[in-house]
Design goal:
The protein is built from twelve helices and no strands. It is an all-alpha fold. Helix 8 packs antiparallel against helix 9 and helix 9 packs antiparallel against helix 10.
């Protein structure tokens, strides 16, 4: 591989477009719809992953602040996303177990989660304040990035940072494999997302192999996300066991939800083991025995 012919994807232009696209989606309608909220959150996660990748090579007193600001912005939209995800997941369960849901029609927490909110023309005061704050955070971050020098990144250093991200994901994989608690699985998903979003910039090194790896990671993180969605629904229902006030029907519903989680988890382990098996090296995952750039 001749270094003269290998050029990584332009980081500054991609990062700037992530933030620009997020701002456009945020302001497209008075109230961002479900797709807009999802896409904005993805763009902010991508932006944070990029900032982590380049953190050691940029001179800015705000580099840590920018990562925190983007996390805050995404966090403000969490509740906007959750109701839609909860409803979609519960509708899938209802389709499979209609009789069970009919017997739970007096459960107000469940029926509330199943209700579809009517579209509104204008945001309520709390959402309006949230939108304005998110816009402010994104504009300030984009402005600071605009003036950063991102022309002289050392690709070797970038690869070392990607290697750190990869090994961090391996560590969280092992934590989960030995103790698959829901919170630990959620953290593993976040580390996989960082690795996935950083990988994009290394496609020129081995495009077919890296694109195939990205696809596997997308499926892996999707399954981990479904596990977390169900966990959040259980919390929203206020469910715990043992509890003398639980109805047998509610206990049964939760059992079926745990079965869904089991199915998703069984899809996670084989894929995760292939990618994050202890002893594997990043260069091998990228499709090389030895990688020099």
């Amino acid at each position: 591989m001749d270094p003269d012919y290998i050029k990584l994807k332009d980081i500054k232009s991609e990062l700037s477009s992530y933030l620009s696209d997020a701002l456009t989606l945020l302001k497209e309608n008075p109230v961002p719809d479900d797709n807009a909220v999802h896409n904005i959150r993805v763009l902010l996660k991508r932006s944070r992953a990029v900032l982590k990748l380049i953190e050691t090579q940029i001179e800015s007193e705000y580099k840590e602040k920018d990562i925190i600001s983007l996390k805050e912005a995404a966090g403000l939209m969490t509740s906007w996303r959750d109701s839609t995800v909860y409803r979609k997941t519960l509708k899938e369960l209802k389709k499979e177990y209609p009789g069970l849901f009919n017997s739970l029609k007096e459960n107000t927490k469940l029926t509330t989660l199943l209700e579809k909110n009517e579209p509104v023309a204008e945001p309520d005061p709390k959402m309006k304040q949230g939108i304005e704050h998110i816009e402010d955070l994104l504009k300030k971050t984009a402005y600071r990035i605009r003036f950063l020098n991102m022309k002289d990144f050392d690709p070797v250093v970038l690869l070392k940072e990607l290697d750190k991200t990869y090994n961090n994901a391996i560590d969280h994989f092992l934590i989960c494999r030995n103790n698959p608690e829901e919170s630990k699985l959620h953290e593993f998903r976040k580390k996989c997302k960082d690795f996935l979003y950083q990988l994009f910039f290394f496609r020129p090194l081995n495009s077919p192999e890296i694109k195939a790896l990205e696809k596997k990671l997308e499926i892996l993180t999707h399954n981990l996300g479904k596990i977390n969605d169900i966990s959040q629904i259980v919390k929203a229902l206020g469910y715990n066991y043992p509890n003398e006030f639980n109805s047998p029907e509610l206990d049964e519903l939760i059992v079926h939800m745990r079965e869904y989680q089991d199915d998703y988890l069984q899809k996670v382990w084989p894929a995760a083991t292939k990618i994050f098996s202890p002893g594997r090296k990043l260069v091998n995952v990228l499709g090389y025995k030895i990688l020099v750039i």
